[in-house]
Amino acid sequence: MKFAYFVPVILISMVAMAGAAPYISIVEPYNATLYNNGTIYLGKVGPGQPFYITAVSATANASGTIIQRGWNQMYATGLPGSWVVSNSSLYSKYLSVKVTPYANATNGTYRFTITAENFGNYSKLGTIEFTAYVNVTPNVFSLSVSPTNISTGPGQPTNIEVTINNTGVSDAPFYLTALGLPAWNTSTEVIALHNTVRSFSYPVYEDEPGLYNARMYVSSVASSLVHKESNINLLVKASVPNDYSAIGSGSVAFPIIYEPAYAVMYLIRLLLSYV
């Protein structure tokens, strides 16, 4: 009977001790709570794209007491030598390790160790280590462009909507560029944070009439290996409605004496578009 009674007491004590073990609270790239020798899969990242592992410095000691600055620094080890690592600052509320894969890193899953340390074991926490996995691949976002068939007048800008679904863990910006339009070769830098969907308006135009088979090209600022594109057909032709619309965009120049008359023309074009 004593043995039967003693065993549950031991099990309960072990569970209580395990529940009070020091932990680390990850907040980036997503929320997770890890204990010593735990593992975490961070997600996908493109070659050359920097990403962050961020944790809160607060934790609990073996008795369950919360220590607000328990972890004093966090650092990464075990990464390939060609990767760049910036360890966290000291004694901050949030500890963040920045990792940048090699620009030409081979596709695949990489493993490394993250360590959080209580300096001098002042709070009786020692260190905590966990294994992190990240998948290097250029396929870290999806692209949607609308419309893809555009009809407009010479020199008349038309906005297209570019939607980026960033499924990776990096917050590196993207370039938006229209290729194949001689009169328009401007790149715009935008930011779609990790695990978010963002839409951006991008203007395209051409001065000379014709049919242009262009491409909406989206690439990561950090690496040209991370890119996608979508075909765009731009039909540029002169017409009275297009010319009136161009007046409203300031694309057609006329003597100032005619401006009132052409303003009326533009209003007529707007009314026609709603009929």
SSE layout and pairing:
Elements: H1 2-19, E1 23-28, E2 32-35, E3 38-45, E4 51-56, E5 59-60, E6 66-67, E7 73-77, E8 84-86, E9 94-100, E10 108-117, E11 127-136, E12 141-146, E13 149-152, E14 158-166, E15 174-179, E16 187-190, E17 196-204, E18 210-220, E19 227-236, H2 240-248, H3 259-273
Parallel strand pairs: 3-11, 13-19
Antiparallel strand pairs: 1-2, 1-4, 4-9, 5-6, 7-10, 8-9, 10-11, 12-14, 14-17, 15-16, 15-18, 18-19
Helix pairs in contact: 2-3
Describe the structure.
Helix 2 (240-248) crosses helix 3 (259-273). The protein folds into three domains: 2-136, Immunoglobulin-like; 141-238, Immunoglobulin-like (Sandwich), CATH 2.60.40.3880; 239-275, no CATH class. Mean pLDDT is 85; it is low at 1-18 and 245-259. The protein is 15% helix and 44% strand. A hairpin with a 7-residue loop joins strand 8 (84-86) and strand 9. The protein has three helices and 19 strands. The strands form five sheets. It has a five-stranded antiparallel sheet, with no helix packed on it. Strands 13-19-18-15-16 form a five-stranded mixed sheet, with no helix packed on it. It has a four-stranded mixed sheet with strand order 3-11-10-7, with no helix packed on it. With 275 residues, the chain is an alpha+beta fold. The protein is elongated and about 80 Å long. The N and C termini lie far apart (91 Å).
